[in-house]
Amino acid sequence: MDETLRQFIRTCNPRGTAQTALFIGYHLEVIEARGGFTAREIRGGFIAARVTPPANPSDVLGRLQKRRLVVLLEAGPPRRCALSQQGLEIASARLNEIGWFASVAPERTEIVREISEKLHQDVMSVADEAERDFIQEALACLHPAVNAYRAAVIMGWSAAVYNLRNKVMAKGLAAFNTEFQRRFPRSKKVADDLNDLQEFKDRELLDVCQGIGILSPSVKKQLEPLLSLRNGCAHPTGVKPEIHRVKAFFEDIIRYVLSPRLQA
């Protein structure tokens, strides 16, 4: 495998450390079918290719991420990354120039299929009817013929909020109202039934759910960036999440909220 990577990098003839890291990432993710890579794996790729590795591979990946050539899959540790659609297109264009004739499906069909299968496996058999409706709509948004990733994120978050509101009802609105007033003493809002919970901001819901023991501090911390992504997708901010980010979003929603095995 080292010889294959060495020959691959020699054939691609990348210019500079960042471009070398990009092609090593392509080899790891696509040719070796690892689905992504870490900074440690990138460093190992440099060594395998007999190219002097960067002093800080994480910094190199960070620069590629800022250029939108790499996306973050898992915050880690270790941080796991993958090539963005743009990064894949750049690598594929270079491979085509040297006669490899690589192609990249615009919809990243294999990743979309993986997301759909995981959602069906982890959620569809355990969610209640309303949650199933949200996820089914999200699945429809992810279909390659639709390619509506922002809508999928919005619907996925709606499933999480619906789930948390039901957990609040099971815990008791008295506990919810008491904790809400403790955290937001200037607010006049009170929840008397399930519908009233719609009046509370999602960030307030997360705060109170932590306060009454529905979410642990660590789980709430994991959910906060998911809410930020949802807000970016729901408003005219120009946010267009990569399919890898959408995949990670749904995995976290399943792991931290929708899974019946959740341990808050």
Q: Helix-strand pattern, N to C?
A: HHEHHEEHHHHHHHH
Beta-strand proportion: under 5%
C-alpha termini separation? 42 Å
- Average per-residue pLDDT, rounded, comes to 85
Estimated radius of gyration: 22 Å
Helix content: 55-70%
Give the overall silhouette: elongated
- In total, the number of domains comes to 2
Largest sheet data: 3 strands, antiparallel
Care to count the β-strands?
3
Strand order of the largest sheet: 1-3-2
Q: Low-confidence segments, ≥5 residues, pLDDT <50? A: none
Helix count, per DSSP?
12
Task: Name its key features.
3 strands; 264 residues; Arc Repressor Mutant, subunit A; 64% helix; mainly alpha; three-stranded antiparallel sheet
Summarize the structure.
The protein is mostly helical. It has 12 helices and 3 strands. The protein has a 3-stranded antiparallel sheet with strand order 1-3-2, sandwiched between helices.
Structure description:
The chain is mostly helical. It has 2 domains: 2-97, Winged helix-like DNA-binding domain superfamily/Winged helix DNA-binding domain (Arc Repressor Mutant, subunit A); 109-258. 64% of the residues lie in helices and 4% in strands. It has 12 helices and 3 strands. The chain has a 3-stranded antiparallel sheet, sandwiched between helices. A hairpin with a 5-residue loop joins strand 2 and strand 3. Helix 2 crosses helix 3 (39-48), helix 6 packs parallel to helix 12 (243-258) and helix 8 packs across helix 11 (217-234). The model has no long low-confidence stretch (mean pLDDT 85).
